[in-house]
Amino acid sequence: MITVASIMFALFFAIIMRGFQRGSYAKMKTNAVESYTGYLQVQNKDYWDDKTINNTMAIDPSIVDDLSQDPRINQIIPRLESFALASSGESTKGVAVMGIDPEKENKMTKVKSFLKEGEFIDADDKSILVAQGLATFLGVGVNDTLVLFSSGYHGATAAGLYSIKGILKLPTPEMNRSTVYLAVKEAQELFSAYDRYTSLVFDLKDMDQTNAVEMDVKQKIDPEQYQVLGWEVMNKELIQMIETDNAGGVIMIAILYMVIAFGIFGTVLMMTNERLREFSVMVAIGMQKIQLAKVVIVELFVLTAMAVAAGIMISLPVMFYFYYNPIEFSGDAVEVMQDFNFEPVMPMSLEGNIFVFQGIAISILSLIAMSYPTIKILNLEVVKGLRT
Fold first, then answer.
1. Which of 275, 304, 321, 355 has the lowest CB atom count within 10 Å?
2. Which H helix or E strand runs over 228?
C-alpha cells in the first residue's frame, strides 16, 4: 500500500501542477488574441515591416463577404491604424489612432467594457474616445475637443478637430497613455485613405482552427498584394515567454519525477528485501526463478496501474473545481497582472494529454523500478535467503 500511495500522490501533484501551468498559458494566449491581434490578420504585404499609412490596402468587398461565409469565422473586423499628434491648449502628445468598426471591435476586444466616462461611439460617429492616461496628460474630459494632426495617405495633410465622447481606461499602461479611438470611416476621412485599411482582423470560433483557416484565406487573396499573419507571428514575445516558462516547468516536473523515482525505488527496495525469505521458500519448494520474477512483475504492474488510476481519479474533482472556480489573485498582484492585460486569475486546464503524459511518465518510472526485484530474484541464493 505504501507503493500505491506514493505513486498515487506523486501523480496527483504532477497533474495539478501541469494543469495550472497549461491553463495559464491558454489564458495568456486568449487574452493576447482577443484584446488586440485577433487570430489572423490580412494586411498589405509590406505593412507588418513598415507600419505607415502608405502601406494600407484596398480590398474587394466581395472577397471579404466570401471569407465571412466560413462557419469557422465569427467575424472579420476592419481597422485603420496610424499615428498623430494630439493637442489641447498648450499640451501636445504623440498618439496611436485606432480607426475601428465599434460594434465588431467590441464583440472581440470588449473595448466598451473599458469605458469609464461618457458614451461609446457608433459607426457613423464623428466624435472620439480617448484613453484615460492620455486625457489626464492633456487635461481634457468628456465633451472637450482635441486636435489631431498627422500626415495622411501619400503625403496628404491629416488634421481634424474632434469632440471627446468617452474616456477609456485601457488594460495596458502604454495603450492607456497614448490611444485614441474613432470610427473607421472617420479615420479614413482624417487620413485621406478612403476605402483603405491597415488590417482585416479575423475573430475565429476556435483557436485550434487558426492554421487551417490561414491556409484557406491565403488561397483566396493575391499574395502579390496581401499577406496573412497568424496570432503566433504577431505575438512572438508572448510565445517566447511561454516557451521559456514551460521549459522551467518541465525542469520542475523532472525534479519532481526524480524525487518520485527515488521514492518508488526505495519502496520497492524495502519490499524486496522484506520478502527475500518468502521468495527463497517459493524457489526451494520448486518454483522456477523466472516464474517467480514474472509473478512479482505482474504484481508490481497491477499495483502501478491501481496507483495511476487512483491518482487520476483523485485529481479529476480538484481539476474540475478549479476549472470552474479559478484561483483569484488579490492585493498588488491584481494591478500588476491587469497592467499587462492579464486577468488576475490562475485558471486550470482539462486537456486530456496532461493525464496521459503524466500517467505514462509515472508508469515508466515504476517499470524501471521493477527491474530491481527482477534482478534480485534471478540472482537469488536460496540458502542465504532462507537464513534471513
1. 321
2. strand 226-230
Looking at the structure, tell me whether residues 70 and 175 fall in a common domain.
Answer: yes
Q: Alpha-carbon distance 243 to 236, whole Å?
A: 10
Which residue, 161, 189, 222, sits at the end of a domain? 222
**Final residue before a domain boundary, out of 159, 190, 222:** 222
| Main-chain dihedrals φ then ψ at residue 293, nearest 5 degrees | -60, -40
Does some domain include residue 35? no
Residues 211-241 as b/e (b if ≥16 CB within 10 A, e otherwise) read: eebbeebeeebeeeebbbbbbbebbeebbee
Q: Are strands 40-44 and 179-183 parallel, antiparallel or unpaired?
A: unpaired
Task: Give the count of alpha carbons within 13 A of 143, CB side only.
Answer: 1
Give the mean pLDDT of the chain. 87
Domain, as residue range, for 210: 46-222
Using the 8-state DSSP alphabet, how is residue 34 labeled? I
pLDDT in tens, 242-269: 898 888 888 888 887 777 777 777 777 7
pLDDT value, residue 295 = 78
